[in-house]
Design brief:
The protein has about 290 residues and is of the alpha/beta class. Helix content is about 45%, strand content about 15%. The protein contains nine helices and nine strands. It has helices at about 1-15, 40-50, 65-75, 90-100, 130-155, 175-195, 215-225, 230-240, 250-260; strands spanning about 15, 25, 30-35, 55-60, 80, 105-110, 160-165, 200-210, 270-275. The strands form two sheets. Strands 5-4-3-6-7-8-9 form a seven-stranded parallel beta sheet, with helices on both faces. Strands 1-2 form a two-stranded antiparallel ribbon. Strand 7, helix 6 (about 175-195) and strand 8 form a beta-alpha-beta unit. Helix 4 (about 90-100) runs parallel beside helix 5 (about 130-155). The longest helix is centred in the middle third of the chain and has 29 residues, at about 130-155. The structure holds nicotinamide-adenine-dinucleotide. Nicotinamide-adenine-dinucleotide (NAD) binds near residues 37, 43, 164 and 166. Pfam families: adh_short_C2. Belongs to the short-chain dehydrogenases/reductases (SDR) family. GO terms for molecular function: oxidoreductase activity, acting on the CH-OH group of donors, NAD or NADP as acceptor. Keywords: Oxidoreductase.
Length: about 290
């Protein structure tokens, strides 16, 4: 009976029970993750999914009001660090805090991003200061996260790096030029870095979601529909899902991240996982 109880305890510790009462295997047991932009939207959903699957999670975000609340709601497995990804020092510090607190860094989610200012009528009127601002967060912030994660992961000969790209980095015309250009840069960054890091046992992949009504997307769509209420914009975004019976939700991105972060994806690197319900395959896309 003792052996059976011990065995049951060990099996039970590897299972999780989610709010919808399904039982599953904890796929990130003993893993430590750092998630930039984890105080809202996709990063927040990913942090919750990772904790549900047994990971310790550090949320690194500029939002010093929401960040601690999100971390507290996730319980002792989560911790908040105030971090602006435009500062290399902040990122280095977030990585150091993660390693000091939990002993290692297995998963780096470079997710923080902004949509930038409204569309100018033409590229001929592009504000290059605005272009620099978007690039600083969406591209430089990501490569800085990759750099400092690599400093820990290369010596450990292990790790999984994720970057949040977008369908705006798969087809043009979906967002302002700076945003689109920044998102096209990410799969290239991933390919380039993967070619080096595969020699060190470290994987790097990106995820390209279609629009999901997070604060970022609601703000972006408000540029197309200036007179629409927030609820009306959410409805418009939800109708963009082209896969019959499905709409893109933050949990879809969180689960894609879960797969790429976990050992189940141990042979997957340099990949851009498009999570769009057919959005980029659909020929007659119209808002
Ligand atoms: P969001 O606005 O809900 O969350 C973004 C988070 O990033 C916020 O908590 C914000 O405080 C944080 N952040 C912003 N600038 C930062 C900085 N300089 N340093 C640290 N944190 C910063 O947006 P979201 O929709 O969850 O977007 C997350 C990522 O997903 C972005 O890279 C975005 O481009 C990408 N994305 C979103 C969608 C979508 O439909 N929501 C689709 C494709 C890609």
């Amino acid at each position: 009976k003792l052996i059976a109880d011990g065995l049951f305890g060990r099996i039970a510790s590897r299972l999780y029970s989610s709010t919808d009462c399904t039982i599953g295997i904890a796929r990130l047991e003993d893993k430590v993750a750092l998630i930039t932009g984890g105080a809202s939207g996709l990063g927040k959903a990913t942090a919750a999914e990772f904790v549900k699957h047994g990971a310790k999670v550090v949320i690194a975000d500029t939002n010093a009001k929401l960040g601690p609340q999100i971390s507290q709601n996730l319980g002792p497995a989560a911790h908040f660090v105030q971090c602006d990804v435009t500062s290399e020092d902040h990122i280095a510090e977030a990585v150091n805090i993660t390693v000091a607190r939990y002993g290692k860094l297995d998963i780096m989610c470079n997710n923080a991003g902004i949509s930038g200012s409204p569309f100018p009528p033409s590229v001929a009127d592009l504000d290059l200061d605005e272009f620099d601002r978007v690039m600083r967060i969406n591209v430089r912030g990501m490569i800085a996260g990759i750099k400092h994660a690599a400093r820990v992961m290369i010596p450990a000969c292990s790790g999984s790096i994720l970057c949040t790209a977008s369908v705006s980095g798969v087809m043009g015309g979906l967002g302002p030029h700076p945003y689109t250009i920044s998102k096209f840069a990410i799969p290239g960054m991933v390919k380039s870095v993967a070619s080096e890091l595969c020699g060190h046992g470290v994987r790097i992949n990106c995820i390209s979601p279609s629009p999901i009504p997070t604060p970022l997307v609601v703000e972006q769509f408000a540029q197309f529909f200036p007179n629409a209420t927030r609820d009306e914009i959410i409805e418009i975004v939800n109708k963009l899902g082209v896969l019959k019976g499905a709409k893109c939700e933050d949990i879809d991105v969180a689960r894609a991240s879960l797969y790429l972060a976990s050992d189940e994806a141990k042979f997957v690197t340099g990949h851009n996982l498009v999570v769009d319900g057919g959005f980029t395959s659909f020929k007659n896309l119209e808002f």
